[in-house]
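so im writing up the methods section and need the Probable ATP-binding protein YbiT record in one place, dumping it here so i stop losing it
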Amino acid sequence: MISIEGLKVEFGVTPLFEDVSFVINKKDRIALVGKNGAGKSTMLKILAGEQRPTEGTVAVQRNITVGYLPQVMVLSDSRTVMEEAEMAFEHIFEMQERLNRMNQELADRTDYDSESYQELIERFTHDNEHFLMMGGTNYRAEIERTLIGLGFERSDFDRPTSEFSGGWRMRIELAKLLLRRPDVLLLDEPTNHLDIESIQWLEGFLKVSPGAVVLVSHDRAFINNVTNRTIEISCGHIYDYKVPYDEFVVLRKERREQQLRAYENQQKEIKDTEDFIERFRYKATKAVQVQSRIKQLEKIVPIRIDEEDHSTLRLKFPPAMRSGNYPVICEGVKKAYGEHVVFHDVDMTIHRGEKVAFVGKNGEGKSTLVKCIMDQIPFEGKLVIGHNVQIGYFAQNQAQLLDENLTVFDTIDRVAQGDIRLKIRDILGAFMFGGEASDKKVKVLSGGERSRLAMIRLLLEPVNLLILDEPTNHLDMRSKDVLKDAIRDFDGTVIVVSHDREFLDGLVTKVYEFGGGVVKEHIGGIYDFLQKKKMESLQELQLTQSSAPVAKEESVPVSENKLSYEAQKELNRKARKLEKQVAACETHIGELEAQVTEIENRMATPEGAADRSLYEQYQALKKEIAAAEEEWESMLMELEELQQ
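--- predicted struct ---
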């Protein structure tokens, strides 16, 4: 389907990769892997035709369609969710218009016996059959099925896309891409904005997709469940394995051991040759042999070893004070924004040493309960933090609290104690701050880099209760392994909010499920919970079907929820008012974020770095954005409640 031959990409002196050749066949499910910066996203852009290589060719077979989902893209705000999703079927609308024109022409013409009329009938019949095969009559049902699979509610379909966060709008773009059903799907981190249920739905979709898939993802469970081939980009070259990721890891380890042995043998050969040259350089009787050895040395092609795998690095939390037996106790905890109840009657007791997961769809209150535990927002009910509890909290906004004038190395050096200080470079390397990156100032780091740095700092602080809100979002697989091992060995208590099944597997022993305003406790690991959920859903479905009474006409009750015309009119008026407030709030947040970007650009200059007032403005704007986002979330929840 796609043939890549002699590909080379250069950014500066050293090529990103060179002499790369491989073929993408029908039904291939390829995981594109490699360390951050190896060129995975660049490879996808080249395959999608959005970037040209320095050398080499990418040949796509005739009539083969390619669909590409980048990590970041420009999103439109002018349509509703359904209207935006319908853009995937523009080709069907064009075909429908063409059929309508031909149908009208058949009705208007009277030369029934002419050759051109017969040709028109044949063309109409052929195109109409093709239209039906493409799903021209049931595309709307397919859109609904896809949007619901990716986590949308039916009530969302007629909402403007501008009401949704960036993550949800990326889901709309993913839905459009899947609905177009291209022959080759190129997906760059498609699970970044999905919850567990949506990821599982996407897995099922890709498994039965008739075309080829090439994807970049740090979600190990996802790529293991979807892919059957692994292509690694390493040291500027590719290694092609016809196996899923887990099998690739084993084979890669064997390959690296072979490389090490070959490297050691080559180094010994080089040293022996150099010793011979040095020893007999000035002996006339050995001149021919010396010249021969010099030429031999010049012809040696150095063996390159794959990048060091830092996943074997072991991190251990520093000792902390022993906490009480019950670090967190919730009794009847409730959180509401106006009339919208996020959750209610939450009863939860977390024991010392337990490692638990908070899971559920986005927006069901996982992070909200964490904020309640951290006493960052008001709530109703009783929530007790146990005796001697020292909390280490990680969320995306923790990265904003870093000292921007320090280097990456100094940020960690200031919290590291004891022998761990000797391993700072190794730790930074494991979290993708190897080499010169450790000398960067915090103020020039991207959002993802700051999050990783905040995570490392947390790992080195003495705490006995860890609360981690989506800790793996900016980590590659090796970094996640380091973090997972450290948490597994941690003798304190852990609460993890995450959609990463592979990360949670073998780590947590209890799962709290958030949904529908309630929080349910499930004993066991994440896969026990997922298996149980499927069984529960089937049982509930059977119970619903078998116990449904036969309706009698005289006993059909009038719905208590049915609203009068006037009441519905008042609800619509409130909803329109809230929609305007939400839109105004989003505009305000956008303006504040633009000011933050402008200040960040000024702070990156030598003059700005010395201007203390800029940092004060920056912090003030960040606080204002946080307050505006909380107000936006509150209004949005109230609006959703009204619409339901």
